[in-house]
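Section 5.1 Outputs to date
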Amino acid sequence: MQIEHQVLEWKSTWKDDHLREICAFANAQGGILCIGKDDHGRVTGVPESAARKLLENLPNKVRDVTGVQVDVNLHAEGSLYWLEVVVPAVSTPVSCRGEFYYRSGSVCQQLTGPALTYFLLEKTGAQWDSIPVDRVAPEELDSISFEIFQREALRNRRMSAEDFDISRRELLQRLELLDEQGRLKRAALLLFHPHPTRWFAGAFIKVGFFQNDAEILYDDTLEGSLFRQADQVIDLIYTKYMRAWISYDGITRVDRYPFPRTAIREAVFNAIIHSDYSSGVPIQIRVYDQKVVIYNQARIPMLWVQEGALDKHGSKAINPLIARAFYRAGHVESWGRGIKRIADACREYGTAPQSYRFTDSEVVTVFEYVESEPYTVENSEAPPAVAVKLTERQTTILHIIDKHPFFSLSEIATSACASASTVNRELTILRKMGMIQRRGSRKNGVWEVIKHTAQIKL
């Protein structure tokens, strides 16, 4: 049985409101609007007189309202008549009485706000990140961000030392980050300005460690240029947020993280490159004991049909200038293989590949720890229910209370060279993680370090 899809729509009767459907088809891939069929594609028919009147008047009405020239074909099935309106895809923006519509899947969407801005830019051959910004000079950009870019581009052999033997303005021109009048483009501010949030409110990354979906234990915000954020975020996740399972291969300590660093790095960098920075919503990374969830705003319906997003596809960047600079730095490839590379890295590591959830404006990338094959390192233990990789301060506090379980809060703070409020916060985190517990009263009780299958060496 046929169903409605991105290039097919059925209507039992003609209404002038259906001009919006024609506008949506023209702005997308084109399509066919059938008049005289029900929601299941069965011919219900229209009166012969009405059908012949539509055959004569509909092409002119569509042209007058939308500017689109359509073909209208009359069909008969027994004594029932129905019409087929064939709508071509149009390379310029098409409006219906001043409003713009777009066909996504089987839905006619009205375009407003940022979605309309991106649509108009793409139809005219422009890109959001290529729009120039007035009254910002190259001298205001961040030197450290340029140093990070140069370091990574040389290390990954995407550029040579001679490529950097030029002025900053010349480098920006080579990266196509200046317009014809020498103005910085939006991509230049995002990539290299020390404070891009002055122009783009959501141009930062939030990372949080969650005990569950409702309760967050601690978090960080990474700001600055995109190159600074990219340079810091992966190390932050793996040193502060991601918990490793500890085992020993002989006398060598082995830290086994739930997910391969290459996969997380690729997913986070994809989020940075493909985020919709006009939305004002930052990239959000939620880290759990055995799950990582990455949220980023993106204009998915304009890029691909959701069902094909995970198949082989060409590389089509939302922010092509940002993507090109990240490619030059060696952070990403440019062949549309990012999703496959992440999945392959997870399989090789021995855990389940990533999964995705899509909405009209957001991509959610999910990593969940499920071992596809048993993890076998000599002398390794099975992964504990609670991870044991801690921050340096947390480890210090555990050492202190394991050795001095009767210490008060102030005595722990003195031994840890930290304030009482800081130690109290760390103790709260350790208790919520199930690492320690307090036995007895607040005044006369004792601290106890809870031992796990993979224990910390105290």
